[in-house]
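Suppose you are handed a protein chain with no further information: no name, no annotation, nothing but its sequence. What can you learn? This example shows the usual starting point.
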Amino acid sequence: MVAVRPNFHQPALFAKQSSNIDQISNGRLALNVVSSWWATR
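A reasonable first move is to predict its three-dimensional structure. Written in structure tokens, the prediction is:
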């Protein structure tokens, strides 16, 4: 299982990486997309 914060990863790059990991692991990749924000101070 991989936890992902969407604002820290470029969507296209992450999709390609997760697709490769899914193929290597024979479809056993689980994604946990967590919410986050970027606070400016």
